[in-house]
Amino acid sequence: MSTADSFDEVSCPICLDTLRKPVRILSCGHNLCHVCLVEYSRTSTTSLSCPTCRKVIHVDSNSVESFPRNWTVESMIERLSISNKEQPTTSSTGSVRFGGGRNLSSQELIQLQSLVEQDMKERRFDDAIHILRRIVRSVEGYHKINHVINLVRCLFETDQIEEAKEFCKDLQSTLNSENFASATKNICNNCDVDLRQLAEDFVEKDYKTSIRLLKCAFKVIATLHSGVEKLDKLQNTAFRMTKVAQEMSRQNNGNEFKSQFGFMDEITDDMLRVTDVDLKTKCKKIARCLFNKALCFKCTFFYSQSIEDNKQAILLMKAAFGDDAKFYRVVGQCYNNLGAAYEADEQLMEAETAYLQAKHVYEAVTDWNDDDHKQSSIGLTDNNLKRISDQYQNS
């Protein structure tokens, strides 16, 4: 038997390390460490799914003690003298170094990823967590980023929020490393999509973790992407921040958003640095980002900042499109948001002017998704104008 075959024979599919005594053998013929089996069996008292072949195994009243010891494998471990004796090594041929002292080949990692994907697809999150938790604890550096993202998703789905939050902190620390840019080949290009969706899902559970995840997504986008795709991803990140701002406001913590001013500026600044896009497309997408930024400020009661960013967005569109700016929905939305910020700041005359401009643009806009959306937006603006009129009469 080759050394490689021997390693495979005595490796636990849960901890990915050399099997530790006592070794238990399942009815399907696969082996696990006793301690790993105990932890794994906590997800169910009557059955479990083999982490190697996924066969459902019945667990009787004696729990894991009912599974026989594999004396043959225990003897093999002793003969090979590998238990707890290898020194950690780093392979130059595509292996990933694990803390247990043996290299996990790329093929083995692919097989584990396939199991995780299958478990997540079929919503067997507890099964996926057992594999992912071990991988994340053992894999070094940037190799673990995609696994951490999957682990956070599984922990969220099983309501293990506190542990998920800790892994999010670890993820942010890894991405903030000075060596991140040189390690991007190890990271999935679209992992920012998962990060942004996780951030939105986390908003009501813990908006601070949402911010952390969006900052992670921003780091990936800023490093890995370019062109129109980068602009779209950054603009979507700003949009997700509006959900955070709304939740802060709902919890009466709007003042906390002040600490995120710098992050919002980073998003728009990075959009300005994109060069491989035509000017009009770039201006339109930056204006959309400024609109979302202004919406965040309005939700959290920073009215002067909201007014300023709405004005900047409108000026940017006019500079890029001239009189044709009125044909773009984002301009009407900025005027409407500008009116709302003025109104909240009790500047009723300015609010009325902005709402009138919003209605004028909405009636001219040509990029509506459908006519119902157009009529709904015009109707809301009419309601805003009526509300301003009522306030004049009551003052």
Automatic annotation (TrEMBL):
Keyword tags: Metal-binding, Zinc, Zinc-finger
Stored SMART domains: RING
Stored InterPro entries: TPR-like_helical_dom_sf, TRIM/RBCC, Znf-RING_euk, Znf_RING, Znf_RING/FYVE/PHD, Znf_RING_CS
Transmembrane segments: none
Record Gene3D superfamilies: Tetratricopeptide repeat domain, Zinc/RING finger domain, C3HC4 (zinc finger)
Occurrences of domain RING-type (ranges): 12-54
Entry-linked Pfam families: zf-RING_UBOX
PANTHER family xrefs: E3 UBIQUITIN-PROTEIN LIGASE TRIM
Protein name per Swiss-Prot or TrEMBL: RING-type domain-containing protein
Organism listed in the record: Clavelina lepadiformis (Light-bulb sea squirt)
